[in-house]
Amino acid sequence: MSSDLNAFITREEIPSTEEGPLSGQTVAIKDNISTEGVATTCGSEMLADYVPPYDATVVERLKTAGATIVGKTNMDEFGMGTTTETSAFGPTDNPAAPDRVPGGSSGGSAAAVAAGEADLALGSDTGGSVRCPAAFCGVVGIKPTYGLVSRYGLVAYANSLEQIGPLAPTVEEAAELLEVIAGPDERDATTRAPDETTYADAADGDVDGLTIGIPSQLVEGADDAVVDQFEAALATLRAQGAETVEVSLPSVETAVQAYYVIAMGEASSNLARFDGVRYGQSGGHEGDWNETFAAARDAGFGEEVKRRILLGTYALSAGYHDKYYEKAQDARAWIRRDFAEAFERADVLASPTMPVTPFRLGESLDDPLKMYLADANTTPVNLANLPALSVPAGDTEEGPVGLQLVGEAFDERTLVRAASAVED
Ligand code: GLN
User: Fold this and answer.
1) What is the pTM of this model?
2) Residue 327 annotated as catalytic
3) What tens digit of pLDDT does each residue of 145-203 get?
4) CATH of the domain at 364
5) Which residue has the least CA distance to atom 10 on ligand 1?
6) Average pLDDT for the chain
7) DSSP single-letter state for residue 78
8) Ligand 1 pocket: which of 101, 132, 161, 359 to mutate (most atoms <8 Å of CB)?
């Protein structure tokens, strides 16, 4: 086991409390998911010393399912990033593409699974943060339907968009982990009870008669090397009896813009609690409340987090609210409608998960816009609250490529079935 990947912020074992379906399995947990008595930093200096007094619901469920938690994984600060490089605890290397980023923001979780430092992992996906690192590290990642998995104990970044999701070496294992964490929770009023609650048994590879829609807009902008692997994966699916049809999602060209306005707006409000008094490090400044608040936040937050709080606050402020936030909400509604229309013609949709191969470490840090644009294929799914899965589709000289499958709300089973056919 290589420990120089920097996949973990804290390595500490949390034992299971009961025997269950995950007995004997090790699980790594993203460091924005609360663990009682074990540091939960969100990749931020602000929370470097924060130890939660309670477990997130997903952590409780893992413990009673027999899992052994092995530590808390590295991540972009508060989930804000696509490379895990905005972490206050240094970057994580990609075991599947050395000297390249593992993707983000759940890069530590994906790297830990890819390197065998944990059997399974949990990440969180606000705009792609489970699927992107899954694609870049060559593992499987699931972003569940909004409301399938409890967010209780997940430190909020943009709560109308995010879900906790599994990362695993295979589709079946990811589905088993989803089974353990899914289901209603009285402490998260947005959770719902789905009709179907088993997922792993759907990994039967049976795609005969399945119609797969290909949204042209999500393929056009991708690198050639990515498209080659994507096409090869589609050919595998067709060879097993699936049919592919072209569908159109014209609204997705607004997705990255709408996503960042909404995500930054929600973040600016969610992160107000880190004031050095209720939560977070104090900046060591003595003075009036405004000065101490500002000093704590200046010292505790990194560049990317500050940029987003400023932009989010601006976009929500009186006079600009209609111009940005409301427009973004309109785009969100339009995207939802486009997906609904596409699902009248297809059972699932397929695209490259990421339009690019993993960046070299350090390459995208000075160019936030380039980083934001890499989220073109993942963010529409969060805006529409749909489920999606990334499964390895093949390799390039610059690292692995992921195939993204998007399903109708609460139809995770069809995603698992189609993805398992790609693996075969
Ligand atoms: N890259 C996106 C962002 O920076 C998604 C992050 C996430 O899903 N947490 O917001």
Assistant:
1) 0.97
2) no
3) 999 999 999 999 999 999 999 999 999 999 999 999 999 999 999 999 988 889 999 99
4) 3.90.1300.10
5) 80
6) 96
7) G
8) 132
Domain that holds residue 183: 8-250+336-423
Nearest-CA residue for ligand 1 atom 5 is: 127
| 105 belongs to the catalytic site | yes
Structural domain total, the chain = 1
Q: Is 77 in the pocket of ligand 1 (CB under 6 A)?
A: no
pLDDT tens digits, one per residue of 269-302: 999 999 988 888 877 777 888 888 999 999 999 9
Looking at the domain assignment, is residue 321 inside a domain? no
Alpha carbon separation from 26 to 80, 110, 177, 193, 419 (Å, rounded): 26, 14, 11, 27, 23
The answer to the question of residue 1 being in a domain is no
DSSP 94-120: -TTSTTB---SSSHHHHHHHHTTSSSE
Predicted pLDDT at 320: 87
Cβ of residue 129 lying under 6 Å from some atom of ligand 1: yes
Is residue 150 among the annotated active site residues?
A: no
Position in ligand 1 atom list of the atom nearest CA 161: 8
Whether the CB of 126 sits within 6 Å of ligand 1:
yes
- Region of 399 on the Ramachandran plot (φ > 0 left; ψ -120 to 50 alpha; else beta): left
CB of 81 closer than 6 A to ligand 1?
yes
